[in-house]
Amino acid sequence: MTEQTLIRSSPIDALRGLLATSVVCHHFVVTYHWKISGEWERPQSDILNNMGVVPVSLFFMITGFLFFGKIYRKNPEWGSILRSRIQRVMPLYLFVVLMVFVISVIKTGCVMNGDTRGLIKAMISWGLFVGSSFNGSVESVHMTSGAHWTLRYEWLFYCSLPIVAAFFNMKWYGKYCFLSMLALGLAIPGVYAGLVVPKLALLFFIGFAPVIIKINFPEFLPLAKGRLSSLVVLVFIVSAMFMGQGYSIIQMLALGVPFIMIALGNNVFGVLDSRGLKALGEVSYSIYLTHGLILYILFSVLEVFSFEEGGVLQYSAWLPVVLTLVAVCSIVTFSVIEKPFILVRNKKMPVLS
């Protein structure tokens, strides 16, 4: 764990570790059903499904919180913000896509099919965080457990920041606002294609609330950190976990209540002060983006478990192994891929995440 992570007091860092781990467990379950039924689909259990939905919803709120805090009543350096996002997000993503390509080629007999047009289309698709078949492998998109889809929304939010800042700061940012509107305009076809769901923007907007409260209503901070507030956090999160329709407006608003309290400093009875969770939080992006590769390599390449002969209980025994492997591999990818770019970025500008 870096010194900077240790000295940060925000429970958000520990929350990230919990959320990323929950997503791994969710896709562990999805992988089982996929191998049994042949269909990649949500679990029938609302709780098991929400182990993926709730963390993603809160991750989007975290993004909204962090970046709105960098632009609200400030004079943002837009070039630096864009550069920081590229350096922070893209190196690991490109590594994961490269791994997907390599594994796809291996799964298709280590022979390239020679379809140059198909390869270019696949590269564009992955570049837009949609995903596609590599070398004719229909399983390519499952090698990330589909986790890459959230980056599509993250980047749309980053592109919207100049417009958001113009609205809240009552200031026009010239070419940056124009480019922001252009980028959002280009995303409109994605709405009609079902690749962009506009209502998910509410999750980022909810993340604005703690920033506004901190700056304009600081007298509410002690209330948000109290033990009663910790109880409210647990009640609302548990309630959201039982909701049948993931990403519904009601679920988003229900999750907004505990998120606002956590972002304002609530540690949920001390749980989010855990050094271990903060350490997981530091490598949470690696956990989130690489766990699909671990699941696929274990159960589809190495085939360490027989789904024809083994049952749910036998499969469940592999969860600790998966969590351990994901954690170890994430520490490696964070140290080798993520951290060097973070250090380069930090020499030029303040930390953004």
Key traits:
353 residues; disordered N terminus; mainly alpha; disordered C terminus
Characterization of the model:
69% of the residues lie in helices and 0% in strands. With 353 residues, it is mostly helical. It has one domain. The longest helix has 30 residues, at 78-107. Mean pLDDT is 93; it is low at 2-7 and 349-353.
List the helices and strands and how they pair.
Elements: H1 3-7, H2 12-37, H3 46-71, H4 78-107, H5 116-127, H6 149-169, H7 175-186, H8 188-192, H9 201-206, H10 208-216, H11 221-224, H12 227-241, H13 249-263, H14 275-282, H15 284-301, H16 312-316, H17 319-346
**Strand element count:** 0
Level of helix content?
55-70%
The overall number of domains is: 1
The parts where pLDDT drops under 50 for at least 5 residues are 2-7, 349-353
> Mind telling me the C-alpha Rg?
21 Å
Count of discrete alpha- or pi-helical segments spanning 4 or more residues: 17
Strand content: under 5%
**Main sheet record:** none
Shape: globular
Quickly give the structural class.
Answer: mainly alpha
